[in-house]
Amino acid sequence: MKAFITASIDEKSLARLKTHMDVHVEDWKKTKHIFFDGDAFAKRIQEEGCDVLVVEADLVQKEVLENCGLTMVGACRGDPVNVDVELATKMGIPVFYTPARNAEAVADLTLCFMLMIARNVFNAVSFVKGKREQFDNAGDYLKMYESMTGVELFDRTVGIVGFGAIGQRVAQRVRAFGSRVLAYDPFVPDSVYQEFGAEKADLDTVLSEADFLTIHVPDIPETKDMIGAREIGLLKDGVYFINTGRAATVVEDPLYEACVSGKIKAAAFDVFWKEPVQPDDRFVSLPHVIATPHIGGASHDVVTHQSSIMCDCIEAWINKRRPRFLANPDVFR
Length: 333
Fold this sequence. Notes:
Blueprint: E1 2-5, H1 11-18, E2 22-25, H2 28-31, H3 38-48, E3 52-55, H4 62-67, E4 72-75, H5 85-90, E5 95-97, H6 103-118, H7 121-129, H8 138-147, E6 157-161, H9 165-175, E7 180-184, H10 190-195, E8 199-200, H11 203-209, E9 212-215, H12 229-234, E10 239-243, H13 252-261, E11 264-269, E12 289-291, H14 300-318
Parallel strand pairs: 1-2, 1-3, 3-4, 4-5, 6-7, 6-9, 7-8, 9-10, 10-11, 11-12
Helix pairs in contact: 1-14, 6-9
């Protein structure tokens, strides 16, 4: 066997793979190239004589699957949306993927956002770094101090919409601060809520009782616009709103109106309806909104996580065991 790897992979996992097969690596983050052209990608794989393919961003479609004699395909993503899984299944080719590869990183950023907007950290840092007049009296200083006085996570209710790998890790983190956790996810069994110390609730209850609301649902047709004007109307006045999931989950106009009116006291967004987010985006200009350019998974450790998960799947298949993360289980006999 020989593997063609365009995903980022760490040295430890690379060494593991080399005990099973020859390996050729063209890390897309180093080559700065993504294969969108199926014919060009197929030709490149054929040139290397590879039958195992591991990608991160490249498209693995008909041209690649039908012409390269592949025995395995791995997609270092939470969902192998860049792979024609249906065709791979018809051809008997297993497709592995790496859910939760960035769960720790996104949960960390979510908690960071919560603390920053709860304690007015961004405004406080901007105040200190900005040009300003010296305080003439204690009254001016007290006015500044009061404007930056925030709230604690302790004894607040954190509402989590989407209780998969990321939502579960957010629950772990905020419970350490003494928060109550309410979560909504119709696809998660009751045992998972119990394991992570969260109260299971319907969506309306989570929205209406949360002091901090954070979004962690996948980007699928069923979740598009799931939080619209009616749902935003259920939010507490003065709620803190965080979205490190997908912008399409929330209807843009009523969310903006809630931010402007003060119904949402402060917000933090890592995802936007048009990306990359621009300085003139209307949310970016709001003083009580923190905006970052989709950096939730921008952790060096994500490479370690995805590499380990992918190696586990490949080794399981080689040893005739069912891989933990197999997108097309019908190919396993």
